[in-house]
Amino acid sequence: MEPTRSDDAAHARARAEAATLEQATARVAWLVSELQRHARLYYEQDEPEIEDRAYDLLFYELQILEERFPQLSREDSPTQRVGGKPVEGLEPFEHVPPMLSLDNRFDDDHLREFEVMTKEGRVTGGLVEALRRAGAGSLDAGGLEYVVEPKLDGIALELIYEAGRFVRAGTRGDGRTGEDVTHTVSHCKGVPLRLKAPYPREARIRGEVVLHIEDFVRRNEALEVRGEKTFEDPRNSVAGIIRQLDPATAERWPPSFYAHSLGALDGMDWPESEWRVLELFGRWEFVLTGRERVCTGIDEVIAAIADLQEARPRLEFGIDGAVVKLNEVSLQQAVGATSHHPKWATSYKYPAKEAITELVDVEFSVGRSGVITPVAILEPVRLGANEYYREDPDRPGSKKLVEVGGVTVTRATLHNLTYLKDRKLRRRSRVPVYRAGDVIPKVKDAIDDGLAAMRAEICIPQVCPSCGASTHVERRFDEKKERWIETLHCTNSVSCPAQLVRAIEHFASRKAMDIEGLGSKLVDQLVSAGLVSRLSDLYDLAHGQLSTLDRMGEKSAANIIDALERSKAQPLARVLFGLGIPQVGETTARDLALHFGSLDAFMRADAAALEAVPDVGPKVAASVLEAFASPELLAEILRLRALGVQFPDAAAPVSAEVAELPSAVAGKTFVLTGTLPTMGRSLAKERILAAGGKVSGSVSKRTDFVVAGAEAGSKLTKAGALGVAVIDEVALLAMLGDKDIP
Question: How far apart (Å, rounded) are the C-alpha atoms in residues 417 and 487?
Fold first, then answer.
């Protein structure tokens, strides 16, 4: 097939306009294939065969042919990535199963404990012990295989393919719900619009989207020329591109997507190992980093991580560590996961670079529980920048080492009084500062320059900096560190403004009541103006009160009132989390809500009933009982109810029809597969969760029911092999208590 002449746009246009349908059919097929090949050579292999102009003319000819013969336009055509329309807002994107975080390791010894943890000569933890407890038999730790890959410093994404066609993409969000960014991700390099056969009915591909270092530097240079604000680092830059409502920026500065793991697979057998997963991605034409490696034993893993760190400045993308995964999928399934992270994988974070600066002073910040935390006020210092080789504009053909990324730090937490004292800090001390995990600023011991005695000491406040009440020091024994820790507390738990502000911020946060628009500045105003003196006062606010506040017009006030009204129907788990009960985090709140089903049942529970909840031990139970012994909390709950907060039950009432079935939904684990005729899997999952059930992405012995629709695949087969009950949508609707079952 003759290529388009690279120097003649008129020739491309004339050829396309003169083509018959038969000629156009053959030409479109060739152009799509050829443009895809050149894109891979340019973006993935950095080995272009043709100039940009030649590529653009091929693209131009394809556009004309598709305009003349719309029936020839293909879903995987390069033209389908261009000209996307802006969206009005980012819609929710649900992850099934959830996108879990990774546990972190920070040195070689810590990494060895990931595989084998010992105490007094006995194996007490790690993968080997977890596998033994799971019934995997005796294992040779040195023989375990791992996949080591770069930990890309970008934005985690999940892509959904149906029948081989790219349909949706979403950010990680909180792991369960992210934001739909299909409109921008469709422009990313490394995102095939159609998978090569054979492909499953549905696949969820997870990976990281990054902006290459060279593109990041060029984008910042372009912004600087226009007098616009530049980005601190490539991660912030790619986040801005991906979350844009208008995809034009993603077209101009297309980020790159690197696939690293499977989220779900329906209609095809799951590969037997992580390495086979990567090979499958290669066949589907996803881009891999090329730095993935199979290692046997933890010593090979440590060597591979060191090699990655040495290569870091020469990589085209930013990394902040490495990811280590157990290679064999059957062993992954045996060891399982916590609610936060898989037990079979971990990340290794490279040591953070340090900088020396001066401690100006120490402020004391009051938290929502009354703990007063020392905070270092620092002379501004640049942290987190990494060095990379990039093209030297002054010397064509050569590269120079440049600093990329980083942030300017002026404050750092000092955690508690013990941490403050241990570091021998005084005003104007010279201190090394670093960012733990390249995120949180940390202060190390003051540098001993012989002048410490001449510097002013840090005075521990005798009264609360917010309300003026007296402070007291509490001592507790930290069993992990085997030492006593001192913390400073405000004695006024009733009317301290700072505690109230922090409590309201937590209550309104996204993972709690999710009251949109109720940010820190507005909360400060509400408390300062005396409009809110307890959580329940939020639901007593009037439009007129809000509209008179600084920077709060009529529309903004109306939006806040609407957000407050919507929050009244938040699920019980969110309300429990929002109340700020000590020791009750997001996961524990969800477990308690699902177990007890209603607020009344939860409040009636004694220690034994609380400890019967999975993962709730004596410490959490004691904290819950102490909280509900408080007259203030009980009065607050009654007032919240009176003002319309619903505290909805976590599980739907069990109807007579459901009671006759082998099981109700609450507390049961479901796996959805195939096409459900009326609900669809997303709605089915929502209804199961609302009724107190759980939804998993894979079938195991712990699965109670597999809900099978049309064209159910390997999950149905596995259910039969494991003896798991299989039901259809009609049975599920009956279990959910629907009266009008089709």
Answer: 6
Q: Taking the CB of residue 54, how many other CB atoms lie within 10 A of it? A: 17
Q: Find the CATH number of the domain harbouring 44.
A: 1.10.287.610
- Percentage of the chain surpassing pLDDT 90? 39
- The average pLDDT across 588-617 equals 88
Q: Which residue in 119, 151, 353, 555 is the catalytic one?
A: 151
Lowest-confidence pick of 152-166, 288-302, 589-603, 695-709: 695-709
Read off the pLDDT band of 6 (50, 70, 90).
very low
Q: What is the pLDDT of residue 654?
A: 34
pLDDT value of residue 47: 57
CA distance 315 to 318: 7
Domain count of the fold of the chain = 5
| Spatial separation of the C-alpha atoms in residues 214 and 402, rounded to whole Å | 11
- pLDDT, one tens digit per residue, over 88-108 is 677 888 888 888 888 888 788
Task: Give the pLDDT confidence of 423-450 residue by residue, as tens digits.
Answer: 999 999 999 998 765 567 889 999 988 8
Crossing angle (nearest 10°) for helices 21-39 and 9-18: 140
Known active-site residue 151: yes
**Residues whose CB falls within 8 Å of the CB of residue 524, separated by 6 or more in sequence, listed in order:** 501
Residue 97, in any domain of the structure = no
Residue among 283, 83, 279 nearest 199 (CA)? 283
Length of the chain counted residue by residue:
742
Residues 617 and 507 in one domain: yes
Amino acid letter, residue 141:
A
Are 590 and 706 within one domain?
no
3-state DSSP helix/strand/coil % of the chain, to nearest 5: 40, 25, 40
606, with CB counted inside 10 A (0-12, 13-18, 19+), is exposed
Residue 13 CB coordination number (10 Å) = 15
Least confident of 368-372, 522-526, 716-720: 716-720
Select from 342, 280, 350 the least CA-distant residue to 310.
350
Q: How far apart are CA 207 and CA 68, in angstroms?
A: 37
Give the pLDDT score at 205: 97
Per the structure block, which two tokens stand in for 371?
Answer: 């703990």
Residue 349's SS3 state is strand
DSSP state of 446: P
Q: Are 718 and 677 members of one domain?
A: yes
Asked, for residue 670, whether it belongs to a domain, the answer is: yes
Q: What is the per-residue pLDDT across 460-481, written as a single tens digit (0 to 9) for each?
A: 999 999 999 999 999 998 887 7
519 in any annotated domain: yes
Q: Which residues pair with 171 in a beta bridge?
A: 157
Considering the domain architecture, whether residues 543 and 578 belong to the same structural domain is answered as yes
Residue pair 195/284 in contact by the 8 Å Cβ criterion: yes
Range of the domain at 17: 9-81
Burial class from Cβ neighbours inside 10 Å (0-12, 13-18, 19+) for residue 638 reads exposed
Residues 453 and 428 grouped into a single domain = yes
